[in-house]
């Protein structure tokens, strides 16, 4: 059975797993809707970091499950509803107030690449391949997805991905800035979890303010909200905990208040 699974490999690190290996982790309509619900739960859960991954080594995700298109994109209204469900899931991942790391193996293609771009960091193994084959299907990416990817790698590489519909290597994706870190396949899980645990030990209010500032820069949050969250850090107990620990040479324990 296909699904988006939520589990907790560590007490403060959540993990979302795209589970549809028979179709290279293509994401069904139900799975997009589940992802929205999962993100809603995580926004109020004690998570300090989230890992987003696909089952197995064959693919992170190949995007929307094309086998559903005839059933769920059969008329203009259905197309709008289907696209809205996908956009809602993309936004939900992007707007989580906690750091999200995409763990990328195998194929990261189409909507799967867009979904990975919604994460804050991307860790890939060196066999991973990336592409946007929209031109082979006669569909188009939403402008905000293109802008998100362009913010990471610039407009010229995005144009190449979209206008040629060719696949690129993990090395190219790393040089472009799409991938933050490259590692060997047998190190991918441990490196991703190491980063998640590292971020999970830091001040969650700082993470929230940082993500709001980046969102304001990208135009999907207001500067006023970002300024408010930054000021809230200065007035927090975690600020006192952090500065006291620094003075004492100890490790701070942040509580998110």
What does this molecule look like?
With about 260 residues, this protein is of the alpha/beta class. The protein has two domains: about 5-200, Alpha-Beta Complex (2-enoyl-CoA Hydratase, Chain A, domain 1); about 205-250, no CATH class. The protein is about 50% helix and about 20% strand. It is built from twelve helices and ten strands. The protein has helices spanning about 30-45, 70, 75-95, 110-120, 135, 145-155, 155-165, 170-175, 190-200, 205-220, 225-235, 235-250, and strands spanning about 5-10, 15-20, 50-55, 60, 100-105, 105-110, 120-125, 130, 170, 180-185. The chain has a six-stranded mixed beta sheet with strand order 1-2-3-5-7-10, with helices on both faces. It has a four-stranded mixed beta sheet with strand order 4-6-8-9. β2 (about 15-20), α1 (about 30-45) and β3 form a beta-alpha-beta unit. The chain is globular. About 40% of the residues are buried. Belongs to the enoyl-CoA hydratase/isomerase family.
């Amino acid at each position: 059975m296909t699904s988006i699974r939520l589990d907790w490999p560590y007490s403060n690190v959540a993990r979302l797993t795209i589970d549809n290996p028979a179709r290279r982790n293509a994401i069904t309509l139900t799975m997009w809707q589940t992802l929205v619900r999962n993100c809603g739960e995580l926004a109020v859960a004690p998570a300090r970091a989230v890992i987003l991954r696909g089952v197995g080594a064959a693919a992170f995700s190949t995007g929307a499950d094309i086998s559903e298109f005839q059933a769920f994109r059969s008329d203009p209204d259905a197309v709008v509803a289907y696209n809205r469900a996908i956009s809602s899931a993309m936004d939900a991942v992007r707007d989580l107030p906690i750091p999200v790391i995409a763990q990328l193996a195998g194929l990261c293609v189409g909507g799967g690449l867009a979904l990975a771009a919604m994460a804050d960091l991307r860790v890939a193994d060196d066999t991973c391949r990336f592409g946007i084959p929209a031109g082979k299907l006669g569909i188009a990416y939403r402008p905000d997805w293109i802008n998100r990817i362009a913010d990471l790698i610039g407009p010229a590489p995005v144009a190449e991905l979209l206008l040629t519909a060719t696949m690129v290597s993990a090395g190219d994706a790393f040089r472009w800035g799409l991938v933050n870190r490259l590692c060997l396949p047998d190190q991918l899980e441990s490196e991703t979890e190491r980063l998640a645990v590292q971020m999970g030990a830091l001040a969650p209010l700082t993470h929230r303010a940082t993500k709001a500032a980046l969102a304001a820069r990208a135009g999907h949050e207001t500067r006023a909200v970002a300024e408010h969250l930054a000021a809230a850090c200065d007035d927090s107990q975690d600020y006192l905990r952090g500065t006291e620990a620094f003075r004492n040479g100890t490790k701070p324990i942040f509580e998110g208040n």
